[in-house]
Structures are given as C-alpha cells and as structure tokens.
TrEMBL record, chains A, B:
Domain Prephenate/arogenate dehydrogenase span(s) in chain numbering: 10-273
Protein name in UniProt: Prephenate/arogenate dehydrogenase domain-containing protein
Pfam family membership, one: PDH_N
Domain of life: Eukaryota
Keywords tagged on the record: Oxidoreductase
Classification via PROSITE patterns: PDH_ADH
GO terms, molecular function: arogenate dehydrogenase (NADP+) activity; NAD+ binding; prephenate dehydrogenase (NAD+) activity; prephenate dehydrogenase (NADP+) activity
Gene Ontology BP terms: tyrosine biosynthetic process
C-alpha cells in the first residue's frame, strides 16, 4: 500500500461493477482516488463516462497495481468470481474489502482463498443507491476487520469524507442482527410486491410506508435478496419466526371470531338488561 | 337540527368515549360546538376536564337534545351498544354519524335500527390519535351518505375547519380498499409485534419504518384490529392473499437454494473456464 505524501490518493479496484459498485464509485472518484473495475458484463462505456478504467480481462485488472480491491459482486456469485482469479498476478500485498450484505460467509471464504500477505476488511455499508441517494450522512457503515492493519482504509475512504458512522462487530453478530432486521424487511417488501399492493384513495400513513418499502425493496435484485437468505445462517430461523407470527395473528383473529359469534348468537332480549 | 344564526354551533353527542372519541372531542370543542358523551366506562372526570357533559345514563344522554350523535364505539361493540338504546327518547330528528373503520356493516345496521326521521352519515376519518397528532391537514376523511341532506355537517365540522380532504364513495368500495390497505397494514404491524422486532445497531431505513409501523399499530386496540377483520367481508380474502404471497416468496427462496446447491456441487475444475 502506498505511503507518504500521496497516501490519501489510493488506487482502488472494483470487482463486480453492478448497481451498488457504480453508486460507490461516484463518491470514491469525487474523493480523488483512482478507480479500475472488472465485471462479468461489459461496463467499458459506463466506466469511460465515470473516469474509471475498465478491464474485461481479470489478469490485467489484477496487474493494475491497486492498493485496495473492493469486492462488489452479488452475494451468491462471489465465490464463483473469486475462486478462478489468478491472484498470483497481484503486484503487491493488497487490501481486499468486501461489501457483501452478509458477513460470515465472505470472511470465511476470503480468508481461505486470498494470499496470506493480503489484508481483508469485511464491511457492510448500511445504505444503498436508494437510502444513500442524498449523501451517506448518518447511515451506518458496519465494518469488520479480519485483519486489523488496514482499518484506516475504511476510516479514510468511507467514513471521514462522507460522515458515516463506523461500527465494529463480529461477522456473526452482524449476521444475527441483519437477519432480524434487513432480511426481514426485504422479505416483507417482497411479500407486498407479490401481493401487488397499490395506492388507494383511502391510504393510511402506515400503508403509505408499506408502498414505499415495497418499491425500495424491489429495486434491489432478487440475487441480493436470495443471498441474504442463503448465505446468512440466521435467516432461515427468521423466516420461520415470521411464519409462526403470521399463524399466531391469524389464530387470534379466528378465536375472536368465535367469541363474537357467541355474542351475535344470543337473542337480543337476553342481552338487553 | 338547529338553523339560523347559531347553526354553526352544534350540539354534538358522542357514544363511546374511548381513545378516538377523546381525540376528536378536543378538536370539536375548539371549534365551539358543545359536547355531551356517554360510554360503558365512567369518563365523568375526563369529561369534566375537557368541558364535556358526561351522562352515565343513556336515556338522559338521548334527551340532551343533540343535533348530531357521533358513534365512536369499537366496531365489534356497536350493535351491542346501539340495539338497546331507547331511541324514542330523542327530542328531534337527529343526524347519526358513525366513524367506524369499516363501513358496510354500520350502514346496514344503522339503517335498520335508527328511527326513519334520523339521517345517517357513514364516515371513516383516515387518521387517528397517532397520525393526526399534528393536525388533520392532508389526511382523508372518507364519508358516505346513506342519506344526503346533512352532508354539510361533515363538511362544516370536520373538513372546513381542519383542512381535511373529503372523499365520497360507496361503503362497499371503502371496505374493499380498506381491506387491501388499512387491514393489511395493521396485520403486518401485529405480525411484527408478535415477532417482538427491536431496533439494532445495523438498522436499515426500511427496518426503521417497520419498527415505527409496529409501534403505531399496537397503539390501537386489538378490538379495533379484529373489527377490521370480522366486520369487513373483504378482509378474509386479504389475509389469504398475504398467506399465499408469503408462501410464494418462501418457495422462490427454496428454489434458489436448489439452484445454488447445484452450482456449489460442481467441482471447481469444471466451473473455471
Ligand atoms: N444495493 C445495495 O443497497 C447494497 C448495499 C450494501 C451492500 N450491497 C452489496 O453489494 C453487492 C452488489 O449489490 P448490487 O446491488 O449491485 O446487486 P447484486 O445483484 O447483489 O450484484 C450485482 C453484481 O454481481 C455480479 N454478478 C451477479 N451474478 C454473477 C455471476 N454469476 N458471475 C459474475 N458476476 C455476477 C454482477 O455482475 P455484472 O453486473 O457484470 O453482470 C454485478 O456486478 C452485493 O454483495 C450486495 O449485498 C448492496
Ligand atoms: N383510533 C383510530 O385511529 C381510529 C381512526 C378512525 C376511526 N376509528 C374508529 O373509532 C372507533 C373507536 O376507536 P378507538 O380507537 O377509540 O378504540 P376501540 O377499541 O375500537 O373502541 C373503544 C370504544 O369502544 C367502547 N367499547 C368497547 N367494547 C365495548 C362493549 N362491549 N360495550 C360498550 N362499549 C364498548 C369503549 O367504551 P369504554 O371506553 O367506555 O369502555 C370505547 O369507547 C372504532 O370504531 C374505530 O374503528 C378509530
């Protein structure tokens, strides 16, 4: 990693230049770092417009002498993308930063496949193209260092300049909490989308927040959502909790129906004192 | 109903002086109308503080010579409360305004039990103590006239002075839309409450709106929620739609799990071109 006078201008490479990577790229470029990217699809035109060097060829990408490589692939394709990478082409000890929305899985995987001399920062930016539209202020960028030396990268690039709050926690802790919050939220958004809910002339305020939730959730890919489920070992339990809670609410309504039928069945004369 | 110079100052009686009625009462009093109330529970102290005359005795309440009687009981207790009322004690043709959150049921019921010379306005204020906390502006007061003559009451008391938007529609139309919006919203809030969702250090914005939803929903009584279900003939279908949508989302996740297992099972050598 470069040090000295120029050390705040990093060379950053991005693997997987989809929706989220493009969103990050815009800020990183504004901060004066130089960016390269590689991806399954051809993003050379978009990269040209952004001022990012695009490499279709992974080998050339790895040879581009980056200080930092950010992994921005979908959760489910990350191992597919990383395993065949000719990592011996790296020009120097490199910091790998993964931004996947689950954390145990990339941590375990990256520690296995990356060269020993590489550092790994497992981070989950708690915002996206929708919720971060108006800047990243007050949004949480949760980070986890598998190794500690290069934590300053996150602090420097992601926190300081955009005013993010940085939380450190174990990957396990993250995944437990994310299952109970983010995965649940996406699940409800997907259910509402499946129901095709629509604005009505009698919307309550609560219903309006559900319409908004549905719209925001479905802007993320189904790959992202299914990754939250398949690569977070706590998510399955949460899906079961949701199902159970639904059944309980339904049962309460049915019980109430029986109570009320009993009242309705009493002849009026007996009810009136 | 009084006419002439004093006609904008109405005598309004409220049946069922619970949460929502007290919320309405504060505004109605500010507007200069005079209020009386009756309820199952004893609200004489609260009424004294608000400047409302409280009658424990229903007969005395009905003899109080009101222009308007607003029915603010729970959805499920409305028939129980209204059936035994000695309506012959009414001193004049009276306008009954029901504010229940379902509309077909009170319309049919009231048209059966109220004296012929009474008018009925079936209204659903689309706001409550929570969402209307900061005034009623831009919140919908949906009204339905079973009879038309006294629509001005709603316009006068509820719309003009608080800037509410007034929508007219059939009770059936209302109930269809309310099942798809309000009942669904309450159901999701109740499910989240059953799951005991809690704020985490990694809340997304979407998750924060769900916490808010849970809190607002459970401030309303379970009576209110179960009334939305039991007295709206369209709600059952909506509960089924929700269950079906949940199953579909779950199935999509399980299908994706099988796809991904297939990929995971292919030996690495065959996957790398
Ligand atoms: N969106 C957010 O708000 C947000 C927030 C925080 C973290 N994240 C994380 O950021 C990452 C990217 O998210 P995203 O929103 O851009 O959408 P995504 O659907 O999760 O990922 C899209 C990216 O994955 C690549 N990809 C998908 N399948 C692939 C395959 N079979 N082989 C190779 N590459 C494949 C795509 O490459 P091509 O485009 O080249 O096809 C694209 O770069 C995810 O890990 C996500 O969890 C997202
Ligand atoms: N809360 C809202 O945001 C909102 C908005 C629009 C419309 N509404 C409608 O307004 C009405 C009142 O709602 P709410 O929020 O105050 O709560 P609620 O639980 O729906 O109703 C409470 C009222 O019902 C009475 N009640 C309940 N069971 C009774 C029984 N067995 N016998 C006699 N009276 C009984 C209570 O009387 P006591 O208090 O004397 O026990 C109290 O006045 C409902 O029809 C609701 O649909 C509410």
């Amino acid at each position: 990693m470069s040090t000295g006078a120029a050390s705040t201008n990093l060379k950053i490479g991005i693997v997987g230049f989809g929706n989220f990577a493009q969103f990050l790229a815009k800020t990183i470029i504004k901060q004066g770092h130089s960016l390269t990217a590689t991806s399954r699809s051809d993003y050379s035109q978009i990269c040209l417009n952004l001022g990012v060097s695009f490499y279709k060829d992974v080998e050339a990408f790895l040879e581009a002498d980056n200080d930092v490589v950010m992994i921005c692939t979908s959760i489910l394709s990350m191992s597919e993308v990383m395993k065949p990478m000719p990592l011996h082409c790296l020009q120097r000890p490199t910091l790998f930063v993964d931004v996947l929305s689950v954390k145990e899985f990339p941590k375990n995987f990256l520690l296995q496949v990356l060269p020993e001399e590489s550092d790994v920062l497992c981070a989950h930016p708690m915002f996206g193209p929708e919720s971060g539209k108006n800047g990243w202020k007050d949004l949480t960028f949760k980070s986890n260092r598998s190794f500690s030396r290069l934590f300053w990268f996150a602090v420097l690039v992601l926190k300081k300049e955009e005013g993010c709050r940085m939380l450190e926690m174990s990957c396990e802790e993250h995944d437990k909490m994310a299952a109970k919050s983010q995965f649940l939220t996406h699940t409800i958004g997907r259910i509402l989308s499946e129901m095709e809910i629509k604005s009505t002339p009698v919307n309550t305020k609560g219903f309006e927040t559900l319409i908004q939730l549905k719209e925001n959730t479905t802007k993320d890919s189904f790959d992202l959502y299914s990754g939250l489920f398949l690569r977070n070992r706590f998510a399955k339990q949460e899906l079961e909790n949701l199902e159970l809670a639904f059944k309980k609410v339904k049962q309460k309504l049915l019980d109430r129906m029986i109570d009320v039928q009993d009242i309705d069945d009493v002849p009026l004369s007996q009810r009136v004192e």
